[in-house]
Amino acid sequence: MKLQRIKPVIRLYIPLVIFLIGSLNAMANRLLIPMDASQKNHLKAYGISFWILKNYEMEMDWLLNYRGGSFMVAYNQQFASEMTVRGVSYEVISDAAAGQILNQIAAPDVNMDAVKLQKAPRIAVYSPKSKLPWDDAVTLVLTYAEIPYDVVYDDEVLNNKLPEYDWLHLHHEDFTGQFGKFFQYKDYPWYREQKKEAEETANKYQFNTVPQMKLAVAKRIAGFVTGGGYMFAMCNATDTFDIALAADGVDIVDAMYDGTPADPAANAKLNYDNSFAFRDFKTIPYQYEIEFSDIDNQPEERGMIESNDFFSLFQFSAKWDPVPSMLTQNHQTIIKGFLGQTTAFKNKLIKPEVIILAENKNANEARYIHSTHGKGFFTFYGGHDPEDYQHRVGEEPTDLNLHPNSAGYRLILNNILFPAAKKKKLKT
User: Fold this and answer.
1) Which of 60, 174, 262, 334 has the fewest CB atoms in 10 Å of its CB?
2) Strand, helix or coil at 376?
3) What is the topology classification, in CATH, of domain 123-420?
């Protein structure tokens, strides 16, 4: 008799349990990747977003200014499992909760917006094949975030391979053809290898000098951007790129680099119409001066040390200026400074159409700038390594396992996902 009483009860509960499980699954159909202080690994969160875009061709929402620039995507158990493996924090929310978030973001009186991420960009990193005694912050963070990329250099650029990519990174590269102005290292094996490689490439393509070859490379890269590409540059790739373009047809290089002395009237012949970001600058051709021009703000001009070196991100209108808003998404608005061969850009030498994304007002310098060029975009970020204040030649690469929440490195990864966004017209 006792068993007979229990059986009807079991029969009543089984459908109820099935109903409840089904209801929970129906409600839990969005994954929110928070990018505020609750995120355990900000850098790998970008990598998981890229992985979803690349492997599943599924749209994601980038929630500008919502909890540090969070991401949201349709629920998929594989996504959740991969986030767990990579140590990325996520929240499972219902469609109703997702709708409430989107409604909150859409309200006209809040500085937020939702941007659709549609397709993972094809990424190229411009880097020499020979081993150099310094690292590259972008390749470090791409590797750490598990974002795939191809390495290209002068051969690939001169053979017109850039149109195969959407996004190109330039880092510690000297487009003036002066081998980084590291003449004091001329007897070091890495310097000799770099010089040999560049001279062989120049000869291969029938250029008389390395500066002529590097100018041709810079012009091909400029054409890539003009045609609709995305270019991101750090450290001395920023100013040497513009210097090379402005000095087209002018010898700005001293004799130990190309066999002929620099034109003493070179600065009067620079054409700033050719440059992307800077104007009215002067080159520095002297032998033992490692600076390329007066664009870079020098230590004596900056008047600061590591303990007081910070820069501030600008806050843009997410609804009206989605592009600069995407590029400045972060869980912090004050970023610790870091040095490079090119550290910062004098405000007075930046073209008026260029948007300053971050600056140090005390030093009258910009650290992070952006603009359009033709159909494409470029972003320049001063400094060498956001988590190594003064990275020296020969030092070990930064271990990003120690910096999974780096605000400085996040700015690099904003640029990685920017080309994936469905474009909205820039209003200002």
Assistant:
1) 334
2) strand
3) Rossmann fold (3.40.50)
